[in-house]
Amino acid sequence: MKFGFFDDSKKEYVITTPRTPLPWINYLGCNEFFSIISNTCGGYSFYKDAKLLRLTRYRYNDVPGDVNGKYFFIKDGDTVWNPGWQPTKTELDSYECRHGIGYSRFTSSKNDVQAQVLTFVPLGDNCEISSLKLTNNSSSAKTLSLFSYVEWCLWNADDDMKNFQRNLSIGEVEVIGSTIYHKTEYRERRNHYAVYSVNSKIDGFDTSRDDFLGAYRGADAPLAVENGACTGSIASGWSPIAAHQLNLSLQPGETKSFIFVLGYLENLQGEKWESSGIINKRPADEMLAKYQTDEDVEKAFARLNNYWDGLLSKYTVRSSNDKVDRMVNIWNQYQCMVTFNMSRSASYYESGIGRGMGFRDSCQDLLGFVHLIPDRARERIIDIASTQFQDGSAYHQYQPLTKKGNSDIGSGFNDDPLWLIAGTSAYVRETGDVSILTEMVPFDNDASVAAPLMEHLRRSLDYVITHKGPHKLPLIGRADWNDCLNLNCFSEHPGESFQTFGPSEGPVAESVFIAGMFVKYGEEYAQLCELMGMPTEAERARKEAELMNEAIIKDGWDGEWFIRAYDAYSNKIGSKECEEGKIFIEPQGFCSLAGVGVEEGLAKKALDSVKEKLDTEYGVMILQPAYTKYHLELGEVSSYPPGYKENAGIFCHNNPWVSIAETVIGRGDRAFEIYQKTCPAYVEEISEIHRTEPYVYAQMVAGRDAKFHGEAKNSWLTGTAAWTFVNISQYILGLYPTHTGLSINPCVPKNFGDFELTRQFREGNYTIKVQNPDNAEKGIKQIYVDGSPINGCVIPYVKGKTFYDVTVVMG
Fold it and tell me: If you average pLDDT over residues 534-544, what whole number do you get?
């Protein structure tokens, strides 16, 4: 069942009913100011950091759901309705929500009045614009009242929802003309404030939530709207809001427009707030002056569209498969950009309070967006590396505002260091910019202790080399990529310390997954060493990677698949010897894509085992059989019911690893089959089962053992976006950036047909026609560049060359 449709020409998903299975959301903002908006106008805004600089409130787990947002109430006689349906839920005569690239547009009607709302965050300003147009489609005049409504958060979202004894006394607002100022906390040496303004003379306002809503009422039935008049309340403590009232009359066929601006401002350094009010409202005045007319909004919206068109033109495909085209050209890359901005911090499944930027997460996200915004990718790598410790380990998370490591989460996730190599390698291959490797970067954000980024990478590599267990495999630490596989947390023997099982540093549980990572990224580190004129170090890295490869084959192979790990007692995890959790997806995908066991035929066996034991119609499960009882010695993984999350759920993030591995051994049919199963455009038809947005990837889909098999959770912010784009763009469609040029080596299903690609790589623009006359899954007969044949699959990079006309013949 579908709840809308794709409009590819406009790069929009069109939602045709407000009653979607879950709120279907969009992200607004490109740089520092961001908003989340649902298809019923729920959501919130923040500046830079969703925890520390939250502008508007949102209540997670509220009942009914998704009822705190930025709303417009239209009062037409006794009828009150909202363009986005919520929160009044008045039945609408028509409804449409178009989620576009950085904007959302709502068009609804009731009793012959049409409302159109366009909401977006403009480039270059820290504000959200909502352009509202009301049209009278009846044959008689209409007298209406329009009310806006936002509820301010008292800046720190965590403190805002917990510290009532203080926060109910600190709310401060001011109203000047049609602008409502939220100046709470300015007395605490802060220089920021927020505004909500409209470009029209208002007929009333409220800034006290209790006065606007009324006692024991909610946003579904505000007393002020029911009475047809705001009260002019000025909040003092309690819960400050911003609500405007505009009375209007519309002749038949007439349209009136209003521009609402929600913004974040800072006074100039040294300027203070006076008790009598605002002594410097100039920053707000200057910003609001830019958005006073429909023409102003149209120009800002056009700039935003041009910005996104430019980004999304850097990699495009035109094939006979419209679902592939729309995901590659629009939605997958768009989600990569949103995930770059948010990491895992703020969504409808992450409150923006508990998590900041992830070390591992952000490094992986780089793989999906580095071609879009290489300059910002460079900055992100430096930010991430700055949280690393001198021994090569790192904070697992850091706060986006402070760039400081999150000490509450700490470190000890032993895969983290290798992801820094992965992200840096991707950046250098994409840009050719080796200067980043000599950039001085602090350890633990301590400027007195800094080293070139290349030294950070060496310590990342050496952290794994110096932290191995009895099978010469990497120590897992608190966990590797699977945060819930905590093999060092508990002892089978009460009172017995893990210190007795390993070196003085602690327990010795080992990860075959990290071992596979080391083989892949050890080689990528060696290539960086060669670029830097360090052949001895490159040779050392390759020797260590070969030793790790041998260790995997010797002690990480279980006969038909790669084992997952060894616990601190050297018991196998993910082995045929186990009663539950016999096979895990992670090492099958990552060891195989790293090339481990490919020549020996082990990779093929492992991938065949994945198909036999882990595959479902909705994707590949993370493990089987599911854990049906709690395993204290395994940590959190078995705390989930069977089929959910890490306990045999379909973790969409690692499905691309298996698909990539299939391309490594040349099985395009199987690689594409895996790609399709979790691809949003392919599951749109079963939205009543899948439930999350059919235009973006979810983190998890319930596995075969779950009651609701096929149901997705945790959409938008997931490493699935980056890894899936890497899979489809670099391995299936086959354009892989190397240090010496752009490699072209597709691996597609036999019936995929010919296709065309465009790709910006460094300063070059590539137009590539791929011909597949023999319906080959993989293999290149010949590549022609500007009409001349070349040897191999890599188009040599020519500095200064701006255009490459390429024909690829598969076979």
Answer: 98
Buried/exposed 29-40: b ≥16 CB within 10 Å, e otherwise: bbebbbbbbbbb
Find all residues with CB under 8 Å of 137, minimum gap 6, and list them: 109, 112, 113, 114, 252, 253
- In whole angstroms, give the CA distance from residue 80 to residue 226: 8
CA 708, 96, 115: angle at the middle one, nearest 5? 140
The pair of three-digit structure tokens given for residue 91, joined into one six-digit string: 């039945």
545-554 pLDDT, tens digit per residue, is 999 999 999 9
Q: What average pLDDT does the segment 26-54 reach?
A: 96
Q: Which CATH superfamily is domain 735-810 in?
A: Maltose phosphorylase, domain 3 (2.60.420.10)
Give the start-end residues of each E strand in 111-236: 113-120, 127-136, 142-155, 173-176, 179-182, 192-198, 204-208
Strand (E) or helix (H) holding 808: strand 803-810
Q: Please list, residue by residue across 656-694, b when 16 or more beta carbons sit within 10 angstroms of its beta carbon and e when fewer do.
A: bbbbbbbbbbebbebbbebbbbbbbbebbeebebbbbbb
The distance between the two most distant Cα atoms of the chain, rounded to a whole number of Å, is 87
DSSP state, 331?
Answer: I
In contact, 788 and 782? CB cutoff 8 Å? no
pLDDT band at 270 (very low <50, low <70, confident <90, very high): low
Q: Cα separation of 629 and 641, whole Å?
A: 9
Structure tokens at 560: 């038909």
What sections of 556-631 are H helices per DSSP?
585-593, 602-613
Mean pLDDT of 202-213: 98
Taking the chain, what is the end-to-end CA distance rounded to the nearest angstrom?
A: 40
Tokens of 173: 């607002």
Task: Give the CA dihedral 194, 195, 196, 197, nearest 10 degrees.
Answer: -170
- For residues 445 and 171, give the distance between their C-alpha atoms in angstroms, rounded to a whole number: 35
> Which one is catalytic: 483, 608, 669, 754?
483
Exposed/middle/buried for residue 247 (C-beta within 10 Å: 0-12, 13-18, 19+) = middle
Q: Residue 455 contacts by C-beta under 8 Å, 6 or more apart in sequence? A: none
- Residue 656's contacts (CB-CB under 8 Å, 6 or more residues apart) are 589, 674, 675, 720, 723, 724, 726, 727
DSSP bridge partners of 34: 46
C-alpha 271: how far from its chain's center? 37
Residue pLDDT, tens place only, 397-439 = 887 777 777 776 788 899 999 999 999 999 999 999 999 999 9
CA–CA gap between residue 294 and residue 276 (Å, rounded): 34
Task: Measure the CA–CA gap between 24 and 38, rounded to whole angstroms.
Answer: 5
One-letter amino acid of 455: E
Hey, which residues does 246 pair with through a beta bridge? 146
pTM of the entire structure? 0.96
The domain made up of 4-306 has a fold known as Beta-galactosidase; Chain A, domain 5 (2.70.98)
Cα dihedral 38, 41, 44, 47 sign: positive
Taking residue 306's Cβ as centre, other Cβ atoms within 10 Å add up to: 11
Neighbours of 774 (CB within 10 A): 11
Contact partners, residue 116, CB within 8 Å, separation at least 6: 83, 105, 106, 107, 132, 133, 135
Specify which residues 759 forms β-bridges with. Answer: 315, 766
pLDDT in tens, 728-749: 999 999 999 999 999 999 999 9
Per-domain boundaries in the chain: 4-306, 313-342+615-628+641-732, 735-810
Each residue's pLDDT tens digit, 22-33: 999 999 999 999
Is 483 annotated as catalytic?
A: yes
The proportion of the chain whose per-residue pLDDT surpasses 70, expressed as a percent, equals: 96
Report yes or no: 701 and 646 within 8 Å, Cβ to Cβ.
no
Q: How many CB atoms lie within 10 A of CB 279?
A: 11
Report CA 244 to chain centroid distance, whole Å: 34
